[in-house]
Amino acid sequence: MHKLFSCVLLIGFVSVLHAASALNHQMNLLDGNSVNLAERYKDKVVLVVNVASKCGLTPQYKGLQAVYNQKKDQGFAIAAFPCNQFMGQEPGTAAQIRQFCSDNYNVTFDLFEKIEVNGDGASPFYKSLTAMNLKPGGTGKIKWNFEKFLIGKDGAVIGRFGPRTKPSDPALIKAIDDALGSVQTEEENADVIHKHLFILSGQSNMVGLNVPKFFTPLVEKVYHKQKIIVVSDAQGGQPIRRWYKKWKPEQGDEPKATGDLYDRLMKKVKPAIKDQFLETVTFIWMQGEKDAREQHGKVYAASLKGLVEQLSEDLKHKKINVVIGRLSDFDMKNSKYKHWTLVREQQEAFVKAHPSAALVDTDDLNDGLNKKGKEIKNDLHYSVEGYKTLGKRFADESVKLITAQLKKMK
Fold first, then answer.
1. Annotated catalytic residue: which of 7, 55, 83, 101?
2. What is the CATH architecture of 194-409?
3. pTM over 0.70
């Protein structure tokens, strides 16, 4: 009985020691200041992540920041450790890493000095973490950038999550909430759910589309309402140069690009996506009439490509799906709009060249009754039913592109 009691006591002592020792390490923050992790994260739940700036998983910074923003006031912290051991994907200096994280992801959680996480040169902190057999990630060396360890308020390591476990993964969020002792509703956790962003813009036929009525409900049926962000802004009779800031005519320097309508659009987009984790971005574009009329068709495909690249750079999102509403059969003889068919061809060429794009046929949408009750045939604008169909086609093609993109990401 005495031996059994001693054994139980010893097991209990080892368990307490194991829990207490997980954060008992001295580490340097990115600014060089040395901190004791146990003291810095006393009574906090901390997610430990090895990070990199040039990895395909680098966009997880955005998700990490979103989780941190939502839960930091509840006692949640993130400790990020840059590491260059995986294909040299974190080559920067401390200053460069700080600048990158600030400029691209507005990171405000703790960033530490670059370390090694595997091998003989691995940090003692990481040697201790990888020696543990944890759920669901198991034991052994770090597999890649953005592997995650969750440590509770008592210093015990709760779990290990693989590199491809996104910050908004329900299992990870639940583990964090359980450790915090909080119960979060789906609505409260909406900020860290993977979001699908839809941006709709263009000229008069995009203006004519009632986006909240004929587009948004259709994508809501496919994705939960809390998982989508829809932003639309359009203005009739405008050329692409009012969106694309580097637009140039085929010859000469006039007219000049302004990009003012793009800026107006982004004033709606930026607040809508603040602190959100964007899993996909889909740009839906219905424009080209003005460029056909002004005879700028020869530069249209290049301008469209430049506009999408401009959007990608601003959103810090490399892979953007693009849905193009092709010009209708309004002026197939180019009698009024001299570059009508050329712009159509340029739209088709863009879609063929872009890795994730779709073309929406609108040739059958400009017949019937318009909103004034007038019968139209091959009109510049669409019928009432035509706009309803346009919204459905935009939604259908968007969903197809997103489905294909998510399949590739698995």
1. 55
2. 3-Layer(aba) Sandwich (3.40)
3. no
